[in-house]
Amino acid sequence: MGNISISTGILGAKEIKIKLGILLQKPDSAIDLVIPYNEKPEKPAKTQKPSLDEALQWRDSLDKVLQNNYGLASFKSFLKSEFSEENLEFWIACEDYKKIKSPDKMAEKAKKIYEEFIQTEAPKEVNIDHFTKDITMKNLVEPSPSSFDVAQKRIHALMEKDSLPRFVRSEFYQELIK
Questions:
Q1: Which of 20, 78, 79, 101 could crosslink 172 through cysteines, CB 3.0-4.6 Å?
Q2: Please, what's the b/e burial string for 123-157 (b: 16 or more CB within 10 A of its CB; e: otherwise)?
Q3: Which residues does 128 contact at the CB level (< 8 Å), separation at least 6?
Q4: Rounded distance, CA 130 to CA 128, Å?
Q5: Cα separation of the two ends of the chain
Q6: Tens of pLDDT, residue by residue, the chain (178 residues)
Q7: Which helix (H) or strand (E) holds 37?
């Protein structure tokens, strides 16, 4: 029992250190995961409207939608209208996560992504199977740029199979190809 309380004490101290570190940072960097995806207004008009040919390619390729700023903003607006934007927000969070170089920041971001999207009853829980959830949890023991890869691929496949066809039929997309 002594070992358990010692390791819990160390873990607790580490979590306190991380939280203090967050508070001591500039305010905008302390809210890097949750708020940017929720409160930044989508302004597709700010980015260049795609050509008809480009927009038509989106029908068959979720990746083409995600790689285009206008497409991404339109797709996100569509998902918000359906109250199903958590999958896209998770995918974006994973893309941002892969760009982190610092192991400490990576661990911090991994914890935020897990708590926001993966854990049971998470505020924006994504629909992944237990097998994928277990792999992801094991990967988070030692966070690396690929920790969320399996879950991200599952969510990408789900968006491609389910959300993309609905998006293509929606007024959000139909307006682009008129």
A1: 78
A2: ebebebeeebbebbeebbeebeeebbebbbebbbe
A3: 118, 136, 151, 154, 155
A4: 7
A5: 69
A6: 343 333 334 444 445 444 434 434 433 433 333 333 433 444 444 568 899 999 999 999 999 999 999 999 999 999 999 888 999 999 999 999 999 999 999 999 999 999 999 999 999 999 999 999 999 999 999 999 999 999 999 999 999 999 999 999 999 899 888 8
A7: helix 34-39
